[in-house]
């Protein structure tokens, strides 16, 4: 699989920078132009001094690989990547890192412009590496959207990120790992990836089919256990009216009145590449490309 940077994500970041520059007065514009040239010169000198064979991307980021694992799984849009990083200024001053001693890597879902919790520089580097591989990116300040200036790394300072990819998991792999870790006994799996695990069966009760109205209690969770919908009141759904996401409705049609189940389905049958905000202060947001888990109890079918 070829590595491809999501250009809409980069366009979003660079357009944001452009909008910021356009809002400045002329002295601000001159300063940013000068800092950009200084960043480029500093990075090019760093590459020459350290004899680095780096490749410059279209976005102005310099990448070089330090460990290759050709058989490693390549990351793609929607995948979960766990990775370690160290960030340093080009003068060698340490800025930040993950907890390597405790083997506690950072985690990111590659979601294009919906991606959160990572700078553009680190994102670009991750897309260049496979599972098990290591590399680094040299990033001008203007191309590192998502990074806030600090005492150790001021606003206009270029940065080096050293990266190591611990794991890459597709949504299906994430779901299967969840099922295994939580001992979920799947009783039905559809062709499009809906899993249903009956925890209380009522084989002789009313089946849920198109046109039926279903009343149920429920709780919605992410694979990491975060609750995005506490289901504080019963939900009523008329099957066939598309009142809920498709994965949820498909799972309901595999159940009967009085049954309890855990259902799991991929983001393509949920909210896809769109994130959802918190529904209350006690719940979590749904990130883009998130598989969803629901615990259900069917109380009425009519």
Q: Any overview of this molecule?
A:
The chain is of the alpha+beta class. The chain has two domains: 7-169, Chitinase A, domain 3 (Roll); 172-301, Chitinase A, domain 3 (Roll), CATH 3.10.50. 22% of the residues lie in helices and 27% in strands. The protein contains five helices and 14 strands. The chain has helices spanning 7-22, 26-49, 120-127, 171-181, 246-252; strands spanning 55-56, 62-67, 80-89, 94-97, 106-109, 134-139, 159-169, 188-189, 195-200, 213-221, 227-229, 235-238, 260-265, 292-301. The strands form two sheets. Strands 1, 2, 3, 4, 5, 6 and 7 form a seven-stranded antiparallel β-sheet that branches. Strands 8, 9, 10, 11, 12, 13 and 14 form a seven-stranded antiparallel β-sheet that branches. It is elongated. The model is unreliable at 1-26 (pLDDT under 50).
Average pLDDT confidence is 91
Please report the total strand number as a whole number: 14
- Determine Rg (CA atoms, Å): 24 Å
Number of structural domains: 2
Give helix % range. 10-25%
Could you describe the largest sheet, including whether it forms a barrel? 7 strands, antiparallel
SSE run: HHEEEEEHEEHEEEEEHEE
Regions with little confidence, pLDDT below 50 for 5+ residues: 1-26
Helices, by number, come to 5
Shape: elongated
In CATH, what is the class of the largest domain?
Alpha Beta
Query: End-to-end span in angstroms?
Result: 50 Å
CATH architecture title of the largest domain: Roll
Relative strand content: 25-35%
Q: Could you say what the CATH topology of the largest domain is called?
A: Chitinase A, domain 3
Structural class: alpha+beta
